Amino acid sequence: MQLSQCITRYMSKPTRVFATLLLLLGVPCASAQPYLGEWSPLDRGLGSTVYAALDYDDGSGPSLFLGGSFINGAPALLGDYIIRWDGAAFRAVGSAPPNGTVHALAVYDDGSGPALYAAGAFTSIDGIIANRIAKWNGTSWSRLGSGLRGGAVPDVYALAVFDDGNGPELYAAGRFTRAGSQTVQNIAKWNGSAWSALSTGTTNGEFRALAVHDDGSGPGGGPSLFAGGTFTVNGGTVTPYLARWKSGAWYPVGFGAAGSGTNGKVMALVSHTDLAGNKLYIGGLFTAAGTTPAAHVASWDGFSFGALGSGMVPGGFAPGVRALFSFDYDSSGINELYAGGDFSSAGGVSAMNIARWDGANWSALLNPYNAVTGTNGTVEAIGGLAVAAANGAPGLFAGGWFGTAGNTSAAHVARYACECPIDLAPPYCMLDFFDILAFLNLFSSSNPAVDYNADGIVDFFDVMTYLQLYSAGCP
After folding, report:
1. Of 33, 136, 335, 360, which sees the most CB atoms within 10 A?
2. Which of 441, 426, 433 minimizes the C-alpha distance to 470?
């Protein structure tokens, strides 16, 4: 029986008490109704590629910080290369932007409290010299010693916080030969006051990704720092495109020369837990991980590599998987894995440049109004905000080199969220009994958020309107 049919039985008793009873009695008349999220732009978008996305509260409220190569992407704001999205508008980060691309963002506490760190190709920010890395404390930028430099075209592509026995330190990796006064090999660490070299790094390639993960098999136990890139050797150890740093030394990931690493460059790493357990996920441009066939994405459980279905069919501009992100998109309490890059399908499912892995299957980020399943260009970064939509739902954000998401014009950054106005409680992306209870709580306090007939009064007619909308479902 539809909710609208249930309502007619009680329309002769339009009081608040009977409105509540009506609502409660209406619940059994309809089962849970899942619905699809939608892509939407962020204001007018940004001027060029987004390479990094990170949620952080610098004291001005939860925001998504974005780094990239965009210039004058947000008119009237100093939004070159790094900018903050507060859920409603873009905001400047500091009084003067960096003078070059931002490739990586991380949060690190150097003992003075958590702060945002940005790294990339720049040499100045906020009017100060800051070689390729800087710290934002919520009000101003500061340099990290003399920074990172050296080499033909120095750049920083990845940041991660890792404790290798001396307390948490900030690791920076990419393509450079000097960190402060130290000679390094494309990777270094900052302890809050000084740079230091790792015993060795790589000289036959560059680092592109870092992730901290405990796979249960690291030397001495506990988490390890995993690194991916274009290298095949670290510190004299054969580590094809993927390596582990632990207890002051580099180790291969896998077993034996033929069974370790991947057969192509690694561009993304993330530690992710789902119903299948906790694993390290690896993305890039490769067709095998160890001896396991794996099309551009794979998992590592501490003992063996695994394929994620049939993987991705790469595109042509920047082929492969370039971003991985673990996120609870619907506030259900279970994270799902999101992969971005340049590909046309995932696991045999049409998925343009972004897709979701639930632990068993790939799916596209569908739009309710058309069959367009992603973006029209490369996704370089994926991020999320726990509250991003008007109804309180989380939001997934994709950044990169694209002009549309779904069928929506979105310059280089877009949000995907379940923003149905009657979906009031988690799990989002589904209408269910919890939404009814949330409505009752708002209704009992005469909250204007549930004035669904927009007459300026919260009354029985809003109950009727809500139930009619619930019965019709979300798009």
Report:
1. 136
2. 433
